């Protein structure tokens, strides 16, 4: 029986476990022998690969993170370690890989394909939502709901004390989490790396809004701006409001996957196994303009990240 190995790689994201389950189930359904790789790329090199049964993946769909653990392996950049990984797959009859992770992991697997012709299918998973070619990556909806819940709680204190709160969201260099959160939590200010901001006009807009009686204020700032601390002090100095900074941090990465993440995970995973079954070699699963599809890794690597123009337009009003 031909083997398909399933692995997670890069930062964990809610939705990885449902994707592992759906990929294993569908691989079995099509007559493959599924394997799980523990510890991501590091586990491929270090031979942490086990056969998987239906039972192994039967109680994971509701769990955040990844039961397979993950890693960012520098050793995989070196040929001798990739060769060790290939031999570990070969001795078990594993001829295809499903990798759930970010574009860095996909590029690593593309190099692996160039070396040893082991086909892979990639499932985009990162709360940053920064993989070009797809509008959605697993983990984003769960992270957004976690941020929404946190900002709703913070709003209670903000309102009770007429305070300002600067809430910093993750996303590395991408402002998607901050933009979607700013709109869905009714923030007064949004700062993201993709959009220019103008503190003078923000100040003027809010002075007009408050008419000398500042109410509470919520500002959502993407970590990639490096502006949270400065904005917190600026609000105190310029708007004369009592302001607090909350850095949400890794709370955004964890938690039980939402229905949307479970559903997207299942669809991406079935698509990934189907892609390998059709004999495709280096495809990434995508969700673009409301449709599921696949994109070869070289197109993902060459694409620019496109932000939802309607979301961008709404956020532009919050950064000036
Ligand atoms: O890529 C996911 C992410 O959570 C980013 O949003 C964040 O900048 C980074 O990972 C944090 O990395 P680490 O968990 O290594 O601190």
From TrEMBL:
Residues 4-275 form the Phosphofructokinase domain. Pfam families: PFK. The keyword ATP-binding applies. It is found in: Cytoplasm. One of its GO terms (biological process) is canonical glycolysis. Its cofactor is Mg(2+). One of its GO terms (cellular component) is 6-phosphofructokinase complex. PROSITE patterns: PHOSPHOFRUCTOKINASE (PS00433). Keywords: Allosteric enzyme, ATP-binding, Cytoplasm, Glycolysis, Kinase, Magnesium, Metal-binding, Nucleotide-binding, Transferase. One of its GO terms (molecular function) is identical protein binding. Its EC number is 2.7.1.11. It catalyses: beta-D-fructose 6-phosphate + ATP = beta-D-fructose 1,6-bisphosphate + ADP + H(+). Pathway: Carbohydrate degradation; glycolysis; D-glyceraldehyde 3-phosphate and glycerone phosphate from D-glucose: step 3/4. Belongs to the phosphofructokinase type A (PFKA) family. NCBIfam families: PRK03202.1 (NF002872). This is 6-phosphofructokinase. It comes from Oceaniferula flava.
């Amino acid at each position: 029986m031909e083997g398909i190995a399933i692995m997670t790689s890069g930062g964990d994201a809610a939705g990885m476990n449902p994707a592992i389950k759906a990929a294993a189930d569908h691989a079995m359904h099509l007559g493959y022998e599924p394997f799980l790789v523990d510890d991501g790329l590091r586990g491929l090199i270090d031979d942490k690969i086990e056969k998987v049964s239906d039972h192994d993946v039967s109680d994971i769909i509701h769990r955040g993170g990844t039961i397979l653990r993950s890693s960012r392996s520098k050793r995989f950049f070196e040929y001798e370690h990739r060769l060790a990984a290939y031999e570990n797959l070969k001795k078990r009859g594993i001829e295809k890989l499903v990798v759930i992770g970010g574009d860095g992991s996909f590029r690593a697997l593309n190099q692996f394909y160039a070396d040893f012709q082991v086909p892979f299918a990639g499932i985009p998973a990162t709360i940053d939502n920064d993989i070009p070619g797809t509008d959605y990556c697993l983990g984003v909806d769960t992270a957004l709901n976690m941020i929404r819940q946190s900002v709703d709680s913070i709003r209670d204190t903000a309102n009770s004390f007429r305070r300002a709160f600067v809430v910093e969201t993750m996303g590395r260099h991408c402002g998607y989490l901050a933009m979607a959160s700013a709109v869905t939590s009714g923030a007064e200010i949004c700062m993201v790396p993709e959009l220019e901001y103008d503190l003078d006009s923000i100040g003027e807009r809010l002075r007009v809004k408050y008419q000398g009686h500042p109410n509470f204020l919520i500002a959502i700032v993407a970590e990639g701006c490096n502006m949270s601390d400065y904005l917190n002090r600026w609000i105190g100095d310029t708007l004369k409001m009592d302001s607090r900074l909350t850095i949400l941090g890794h709370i955004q990465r964890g938690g039980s996957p939402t229905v949307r993440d479970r559903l997207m995970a299942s669809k991406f995973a079935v698509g990934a196994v189907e892609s390998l079954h059709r004999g495709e070699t280096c495809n990434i699963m995508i969700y673009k303009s409301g449709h599921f599809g696949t994109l070869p890794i070289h197109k993902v690597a060459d694409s620019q990240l496109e932000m939802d123009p309607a979301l961008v337009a709404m956020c532009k009003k919050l950064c000036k």
